[in-house]
Amino acid sequence: MDRKEDVLLVKARGGDRQALAALAARYGSELYRLARYILRSDEEARDAVADVFARLCTKPQNIPLGGFRTWAVKVTCNHCRDLLRRKGTLTRLLPVIYNRSAERANPTPEQAALAADEQASVRQAVARLPEQERIIVVLRYYHQLSYAEISAVLGIPQATVGTRLHRARERLRQLLGYGRGGREPDALPE
Fold it and tell me: What is the model's pTM?
């Protein structure tokens, strides 16, 4: 955390709306992307992030003085999960884990088609993971959070994060036919 953020956090915690707006400007797009991948809707994601920051306006004392990014991801993630639970649609939680085409600057049409097919297969496999594993995969591979950050976001021990992530990778390998005589992945998340 930098000095400027320290000052913003102290001011925001004291009820300064301009400081809160600066935090929203700094982290809003990242939180929106997270909400978008969880909720699978632009409009619902915008509303969810607006809800998170609106709650901060009403209870600025809840703003932590350290680790704001991790805390904000946790709050947003929990809020989105609550919204989905209320709707009964947790099966919509399906992000694109990785984008193979980004690894190839100028893929041939055949490479692009193969990458698109592989991404669709990965998305389908991730959709079949249990919710606890699926959310960890999203946080680790899309949002690139560390084990410690995921632990803080979900409120579980780091060892549990590692265990669930390991199980998720094993299930993905099985679902995608990797290992044990099957094909080997080019970019299966590790």
Answer: 0.52
Please say if the pLDDT value at position 41 is more than 60: yes
Q: Which long-range contacts (CB under 8 A, 24 or more apart) does 103-109 make?
A: 103/187
Q: What is the rounded distance in angstroms from the CA atom of residue 138 to the CA atom of residue 37?
A: 8
The three state secondary structure string of 7-69 is: HHHHHHHCCCHHHHHHHHHHHHHHHHHHHHHHHCCHHHHHHHHHHHHHHHHHCHHHCCCCCHH
Angle at 143 between CA 64 and CA 75, to 5 degrees: 35
Q: Tens of pLDDT along 58-86?
A: 888 889 988 899 999 999 998 988 887 77
Which of 113, 101, 126 has its CA nearest to residue 40? 126
Tokens 């993630």, residue located:
77
Which of 181, 178, 180 minimizes the C-alpha distance to 189?
Answer: 178
Structure letter (DSSP) for residue 138: I
